[in-house]
Design goal:
The complex is a heterodimer of chains A (519) and B (349). Chain A has 519 residues and is of the alpha/beta class. Chain A is 35% helix and 25% strand. Classes of the chains: A alpha/beta (519), B mainly alpha (349).
């Protein structure tokens, strides 16, 4: 695929690289959300005719930068120049008018309206009496598709278009706006190979027409196929910008990972316990496929992978929240009824979800009642819940988890993020689960509490509990897991023991690169 | 993850130009209702020959004019993913106030009387629209509250003084009683409104934007659509048409108390939904809603002609409503599944 590198468009890109006149420049952009520095002094230049890759791990700040380009976020400080003129991208409309257009991984179309209407909504061509000129609109849509070299029926409804075609519609919208800068956020994540090839053709066409493309992707091989330059972010900070020809995949991965490799700690659990969880050929069509693995008593198994790889979905499938299409889940050798969280709970599975505010806690309810929520059956007498046993249970667990609270009758809302997470943990631990599934256990909580959650998990496995952990934080995965399963695009692509795992090997697997070619 | 549906719907790409039949069915909802309408009519006529008589047909045509007008306005509101439950009460208020105009000014021209009705309704829509669009209170709650408020206002104004035919000039009553080319004048008015609004819904930016808002509210904001103004307009039009319907209601029945139009809001919603207007917005046509109203009325008449108790009329209307919604849901789930499997198979190449 690298022939794109020597065609005319690439030459044009080279030429424009020689002339020091970037189309879009971001200088020293900073953006914080509360105490979190999402972007810290990031600069990037986009030239006409180039496809510029933006790379980084989960949470490196790519999305924030994209949203600044889209006019969704405004930087706290720093400046943006378009064709040498300073601009404010103060709203999505302002960004659009400035000629900056963002194609999201999941396009936002109007499913009930036609493709042509989707492209021209709010600025349809008119005929006499300010009526919409449908034939002109269809023709303009066809023209846009012709320029992109694709065929989509302009008068069909957007509902039912593949994600690939939806992206094409969004791109057609961009060029009908005369967008100069087109930002593609993970455009190929949901695409098949044929569709990816067509998208690459479109990218080449756009470059040849003088657009600047910023290409955000986790798939490094693609980046090396179609991009001319690459900028890498890490933990919200700028790492470097390089010509694709002057770097290589391993170098890029090193820059993305960056930190010192964290030494694996003993999780305390062995891998010789009996199987608690056995997952066989679990499939949810279009989401994840043919997932088989097991978790033994006394071990922590991590599901690693990039955002969108299907990790949370697999967990939801095991716990019975989402319907599965094929495969079985066994707990202690007994087949679990699928699609039933109640059956999963009765079999001894605890599930601590990713988004504790939405799914794990009733924020307006008192701490003790939240703790007791999953154990009501054990606490009730003749169908009534005994307040005293509820309190006692909450008190015991709060002490064991070192929960910091005012009164147990205060609402959960009054707690810090880390302590809220402890309440969710207490809620499930009170049921004394055989298997604890925990999704992003330390997201958004401070370092001190993080360490306590880790200590808690390692203590749990020492008592013979099996833990399945999903985490996007590499150091966490390496620190406390006994085994690491890597998912990529809905498939279980590799498994590492603690000894063989390091950030680079996991990152390579997660981006879909074969292990054999690893350094 | 909300994108599952989108992903699931992926398969239908251009690679597969043959749309499954099940997806096509949705587009022909108007045709299906028309067909059902004819079937009900023919079936009932065979059992009860008087059903096909001229006077009966006129009953079939004049009866639903009021509901058609309300359903047209309701359709605009539903398309924006809202609902207007005030319309029944607006019909009552408008009917009484138009009658009151005749009590005080017996020589008011018919056209002015109709305009008074429209103005009363538009004023109600203005209030509703302001609260829903600009104060961002959910329309279900706002219009449910206003349903009672407007009805209460009506009761206070009427204050047990009914208006009857003696106060109304023959010319005005004629709108409800007379025909033009064999079709009641009321129905002509409804037909004109359906034609004009139906045309407008297809051909103007503002109306297309209403569809966009109902289809994907967030995308509508991102596309720079003046979402609040469009929702506001939909409520004003809905109110105005309910006001017009109220004036016609008075012309038809020639007497009005404080309960006129009670329950019409649900008839209007039912007509729209049976007529293929998606209850969650974004799709549906004016013609479909009008046919839905006609269909429900014809079933009502057919059951009466067949000597079936009026309880069954309500039950049948309810059943049709549930069936219409279930059909929509079924089509979505079914197409989702088809496309998901297709998408996966294509992905394996």
């Amino acid at each position: 695929m690298s022939e794109g590198f020597i065609d005319g468009a690439a030459d044009a890109a080279r030429d424009s690289l020689d002339t020091p006149k970037p189309l879009l420049v971001v200088e020293h952009a900073k953006k914080s959300f509360g105490a979190v520095h999402a972007l810290n002094d990031v600069s990037i230049e986009l030239f006409r005719g180039e496809a510029h890759a933006l790379l980084g791990e989960n949470g490196a700040g790519k999305s924030t930068l994209v949203k600044i380009f889209a006019g969704v976020h405004q930087p706290d400080s720093g400046s943006i120049f378009l064709d040498g003129v300073r601009v404010q991208l103060s709203s999505p409309a302002a960004a659009r008018d400035a000629g900056v257009s963002v194609i999201y991984q999941e396009p936002t179309l109007f499913p009930d309206l036609t493709v042509a209407e989707n492209i021209f909504m709010g600025r349809q061509p008119l005929r006499s009496g300010r009526r919409i000129n449908r034939s002109e609109m269809t023709k303009l849509t066809k023209d846009a598709f012709d320029r992109l070299g694709v065929t989509i029926d302009p008068s069909r409804a957007a509902r039912g278009l593949s994600v690939a075609d939806q992206q094409i519609v969004e791109i057609a919208k961009s060029i009908s706006f005369n967008a100069q800068v087109i930002i593609m956020d993970e455009p190929t994540a949901a695409l098949t190979e044929v569709e990816v090839a067509r998208l690459f053709d479109v990218v080449k066409t756009l470059r040849a027409q003088g657009a600047a493309i910023m290409y955000v992707s986790h798939r490094l091989s693609e980046v090396f196929d179609i991009c001319q330059r690459v900028t890498i972010l890490r933990d919200g900070a700028f790492v470097k910008t390089a010509l694709i020809g002057e770097t290589n995949i391993d170098d890029v991965i090193r820059s993305m990972v960056g930190r010192d490799v964290v030494a694996a700690q003993s999780a305390g659990g062995g891998t010789d316990g009996a199987n608690v969880l056995e997952v066989e050929r679990l499939t949810r069509e279009g989401i994840f496929t043919d997932i088989s693995f097991n978790v033994r008593a006394g071990e922590i198994v991590a599901l690693a992978g990039l955002v969108g790889a299907g990790r949370t979905e697999v967990a939801r499938g095991i716990f019975g929240i989402d319907r599965i299409d094929a495969g079985t889940v066994k707990i202690d050798g007994k087949k679990l009824k699928s699609g039933s969280p109640v059956a999963a709970m009765n079999a001894g599975i605890g599930f601590v979800p990713e988004d504790r505010r939405q799914q794990g806690l009733v924020m307006e309810m008192a701490i003790d009642r939240n703790v007791a929520l999953a154990s009501l059956r054990g606490l009730s007498h003749l169908g009534f819940i005994r307040k005293s046993s509820e309190r006692k249970m909450a008190f015991d667990w709060s002490a064991r988890l070192r929960l910091k609270y005012g009164r147990l009758s205060n609402t959960v809302m009054t707690l810090s993020g880390g302590n809220q997470q402890k309440v969710v943990l207490a809620k499930w631990l009170a049921r004394e689960p055989r298997l604890l599934i925990i999704d992003e256990p330390t997201r958004g909580i401070d370092i001190g509490t993080k360490a306590e959650v880790h200590r808690l998990l390692t203590e749990l496995v020492k008592q013979g509990v099996a833990v399945l952990m999903i985490s996007s934080e590499m150091p966490e995965v390496l620190q406390i897991s006994d085994r690491i399963l890597v998912l990529c695009e809905g498939r279980l692509i590799d498994e590492f023991s603690r000894e063989e795992a390091n950030e680079t090997s996991i990152m390579r697997a997660a981006t879909g690169l074969a292990r054999t070619s690893a350094a | 993850m909300s994108q599952h549906l989108d992903e699931a719907l992926s398969g239908a790409a251009t690679a597969n130009p043959k749309t499954p039949f099940i997806l096509k069915l949705v587009r022909f909802r108007e045709f299906a209702i028309l067909l059902a309408l004819v079937l009900v009519f023919v079936g009932t006529s065979l059992k009860n020959t008087s059903f096909a008589s001229t006077s009966s047909i006129q009953g079939l045509l004049s009866g639903p004019a009021v509901i058609i007008l309300i359903a047209v306005g309701e359709t605009l509101v539903i398309i924006t993913r809202n609902v207007d439950l005030t319309v029944g009460s607006v019909v009552g208020l408008s009917a009484y106030l138009v009658g009151d105009v005749y009590v005080h000014y017996p020589h008011t021209p018919v056209l002015v009387a109709l305009l008074v009705g429209i103005a009363v309704g538009a004023a109600c829509g203005l209030v509703t629209g302001t609260i829903v669009a600009y104060a961002r209170v959910p329309s279900l709650a706002v219009t449910l509250g206003l349903l009672y408020i407007i009805r209460g206002l009506d009761a206070v104004i009427v204050n047990a003084v009914q208006i009857n035919a003696t106060s109304l000039p023959a010319g005005f009553i004629g709108v409800g009683a007379n025909n033009f080319i064999g079709i009641p004048i009321m129905m002509w008015i409804a037909i004109i409104v359906v034609a004009v609004v139906g045309y407008a819904m297809r051909n103007f930016r503002a109306t297309r934007e209403m569809y966009a808002i109902g289809s994907n509210p967030e995308a509508a904001l991102l596309a720079g659509i003046p979402v609040q103004r469009r929702i506001f307009s939909a409520f004003v039009v809905s109110g105005a048409l309910a006001g017009l319907a109220g004036a016609l209601w008075l012309a038809e029945f020639a007497t009005v108390g404080s309960t006129a139009g009670t329950g019409y809001e649900l008839d209007a919603v039912a007509a729209a939904v049976v007529g293929g207007v998606a209850i969650f917005g974004g799709s549906g046509t004016i013609l479909g809603a009008a046919l839905g109203a006609l269909f429900l009325n014809t079933i009502n008449q057919a059951l009466v002609a067949g000597g079936v108790s009026s309880f069954w009329d309500q039950a049948v209307a309810g059943l049709l409503l549930v069936l219409a919604i279930a059909l929509d849901r079924y089509l979505v789930v079914r197409s989702e599944r088809i496309l998901r499997v297709e998408g996966r198979d294509r992905g394996r190449h």
